């Protein structure tokens, strides 16, 4: 499978603090990839390294087979939309499009103007007077009109209301279908990723805990609930992702390709949010929860 982004032992340090360290990752091309993880996992730093905004302190990274930001041609192949959807408050919508055309050799003016018309944005309106959703759509338009092979979005809808989020993501997916480019999207809103992503990466402390096609991951993860059982009594082909125990009951999230035949377990499927939270749970498999914790 062709990779759109590869990193090996990648690290970025600010003074004595490592924002990203020993990160090894392989993101396939041709997917809408959801990148999730807790605050401080290194997601934003990774995406800025991938877009050429930062230089690594350690390790290696390649994007679309080349060094991020290494040449103007390489920069033109990658689009980036940040969390704060950066636009220039004093510039009008039309001036943003003219600036985009001057800065990007692959600029598609037809795409840009068509999107602005579909969104109902006034080309003479200054960006500072647009709503948050409109600014986000303008930033997305600038990213799409670059005609990138890879579009990187770092929490682009975090501050938007539900309707604006839906419209943003719908516009993104329509563009993906029409122009067939790869997307890497980081978000804390797993419900949004569930709607649009077909590939998932969970990053915790710079380590990839799980990566794969969403459908495949959901098909191989299960929740087991039953009489209390120590983890060493589970079959070896059942990889324990997380575990919670009371005095009488155990609840495991496991990953396995094998069928589960033990009648003592109640077996249920996970949704994507369940799966992500299970992999982000750092407690050891045999740990016990706080006394008042609600069991799931």
TrEMBL record:
Keywords: ATP-binding, Nucleotide-binding, Transport. One of its GO terms (molecular function) is ATP binding. InterPro entries: AAA+_ATPase, ABC_transporter-like_ATP-bd, ABC_Transporter_VariousFunc, P-loop_NTPase. It holds the Pfam family ABC_tran. The keyword Transcription does not apply. Residues 5-230 form the ABC transporter domain. It comes from the Bacteria. The keyword Transport applies. This is ABC-2 type transport system ATP-binding protein. It comes from Planomonospora venezuelensis.
